[in-house]
Amino acid sequence: MNTPSRRKFRREGEERRRQDLIEATLNSVAEHGLEGATLRTIALRAGVTAGLIRHYFPGKEELLQEAYAALMGRMTEQAKAALVMEEASPRKRLAAFVTANLNAPIIDARVFSLWATFIGRAGSDPSLARAHREGYLGFRNEVEAVVAEVLAAEQRDTDASQLRHHAIAINAIIDGLWVEGCLAGEMFSPGELATIGIKSIEAELGLAPERGENQ
């Protein structure tokens, strides 16, 4: 009979194996594209058999869906890490969140290439479309939460529809600058995209320049 510690070790081992397979999938897609990333190539990269992959995932479609969800979720978590700022004002936390989204490791040519590969199939693949929608909404929810804190600190009343409007607009601002940074990062000076993003988002929210900012 398994002890609780053994069961926990087994669960942790299985979760680690799932994550290893997801990472191998992302690496295979980056190298071979969606069609070339077969279960065989993924298994070879992960150092396992294709049969073992089927123990964790019903098929390639489910594995690709999990890989895409992991890619999007990773970017959101990296941006959220910037919000952990003790005693920082909501406005400073918003600026840190935007800055994180518009710098490495989120701005990265490989990450963009993977994202573009998956998004190109999402229109015809319901499972990838679902992963994209969930990732988008998850990120937008984080934006809404940060915006709500900023507007509350500014003593401004807002409702759910206004927060939704702001989050959609801010997501579009960040996405557009992120694409530019991934495709042509050498064209921008360090911090330039983040500065543009912060000012554009502050304008979207109707925030007056903070004291000391250039007018």
Strand and helix map with partners:
Layout: H1 4-36, H2 39-46, H3 50-56, H4 60-81, H5 90-101, H6 109-122, H7 126-153, H8 160-184, H9 192-205
Helix pairs in contact: 1-2, 1-4, 1-6, 4-5, 4-7, 5-7, 5-9, 6-7, 7-8, 8-9
Describe the structure.
The structure is a single chain. By secondary structure, the protein is an all-alpha fold. It has helices at residues 4-36, 39-46, 50-56, 60-81, 90-101, 109-122, 126-153, 160-184, 192-205. Helix 1 (4-36) crosses helix 6, helix 5 (90-101) packs antiparallel against helix 7 and helix 7 (126-153) crosses helix 8. The longest helix has 33 residues, at 4-36. The N and C termini lie far apart (70 Å).
Number of domains: 2
Q: Can you summarize the main beta sheet?
A: none
Please tally the helical runs, counting DSSP H or I stretches of 4 or more residues: 9
Shape: elongated
| CATH architecture type of the largest domain | Orthogonal Bundle
Secondary-structure element pattern, one letter each: HHHHHHHHH
**pLDDT < 50 stretches:** none
The N- and C-terminal alpha carbons lie at a distance of 70 Å
Radius of gyration: 20 Å
CATH topology of the largest domain: Tetracycline Repressor, domain 2
CATH hierarchy class name of the largest domain = Mainly Alpha
What is the number of E strands? 0
Mean pLDDT value: 92
Residues in helix, %:
over 70%
CATH evolutionary superfamily of the largest domain: Tetracycline Repressor, domain 2
